[in-house]
């Protein structure tokens, strides 16, 4: 708790652009009385230095402890700056460090107290800012003009000194904008005129675009969306999901950018590997699914969300698994989700407001112990796992009707695999409860309630029924079919180890051919190289130690360049080495100058030794620890194209299905390659 403060030092520049003030603050710490008695103090003192630069529109706040500085070192830094993508926003960054050398044997207690105080201070800071903002509004101050250099005329400048001190005003906008308060102007100051930023309509961040396609977002949420999209543009050029899709992953992780980025990258890699973007156009469901899968789309709910009806109680899950296998069912559910994304876009246009999720109505009439057949439940859990990972925040509401007595057993098996946020969207009705108050009519218009639920609307969803046993297939047939379905991909996976790169050989007969590549770094950081040799390397030996060819669950590892070969004599490098970080997607091409043998190499990237003046960043240390056993993973595709067929590196990769057709915004632009190569992330 703040008790008092004394000004230790203060500086103001002549033009009043710079204002630095240093204070010694007296604080009362909420600590156990015994600890205070042992320490021999009732209060602790901190030194805080505030540096306001009106010209650069920044405010830096630094604080460190004076009390017990020989035992405990606390440093805190706060920074207020103008957001780089929208100058009407304030960007706030805060960091702190705690180093406890010794504290009378109470080191762990002090650490817990410090963390508690730090957390509560962050929350309290927002309240304080809101308090002063409200005070300004009560005084009738809703706008503070930006700082401009003093006017040359002293007479004019002397009459303009009745301005309110700017320091408190700088602190206000950040939380004010976060809380959505109606500020007309941010309280930062600058001497330069406003310049166009990324927050223009061209960048799809204007208010109309947000309201029309994204819905209500706080400035903090908009900022998270911009930052994640910018990162994707830098690392996944030409394949950027739409803002609506990025937003789903951010919402699924409460707008934690690092967590959202991780699951989004994993999902994009998964979509690419299994060509999910093309599933609606290239995959035709087997006739058994069309006849016996009791589910289908049926109009929309009262909120405009697409409505999917599933008559699970009438569906022979055991028969479907025995006739089709787990993977065919999974692929069918994926096609349903892809259709759901498409219908959300259509309904957004029809209703003129953002619709990013659908409603699912599940009728359990007829559910019995047959539905609890273990392989069927296993298939259901697998489907839930895949959908949860790749279609977050797409389920707006789940209405479960006519739940029988056996339902709690199924719910006990399934619920642990369902995300907490998703579970909150479940509404469960037993018997005919759905017909009463708070039932189906609260969410679906009477005119479209299906006939089998007592409504007047004819529902074209198949009625299901038992799958004839004549359609059942043997376990071996189903296993082969599952393998075929889930390995139908043009991409290959490879593992890269420290000291064991993965290499791919490409033989070129005609000079001026074009080698194209498209790969994703799924784990770790790698270095990508391209080499040329006039002689063919020896095929990898399948020796017992696996020194040249390693097979692992994550993919193969093949080494072609013999250890006795010398760079510059036996083979040469034809492209500069490219360092690729985890999560990056890389596409590129190389126009060959000579016939011969070209080797594409993915090599483990060693973390560089820190410079003498810089310590390694915490992020780098954590990243190095996360690469278990010095192992990286890549997913790649290569293709050789004749020079006459080459139309630029991005267009040449159309045949590799590397784009996200259903999710991509129209951001891709192809350019003619005038140099020997083109590499793009």
UniProtKB/TrEMBL annotation:
Span of domain PRELI/MSF1: 1-141
Cross-referenced SMART domains: CRAL_TRIO_N, SEC14
Residue span(s) of domain GOLD: 487-640
PROSITE patterns on file: CRAL_TRIO (PS50191), GOLD (PS50866), PRELI_MSF1 (PS50904)
Annotated ranges, domain CRAL-TRIO: 285-461
Protein's recorded name: SEC14-like protein 1 isoform X2
UniProt organism field: Apteryx mantelli (North Island brown kiwi)
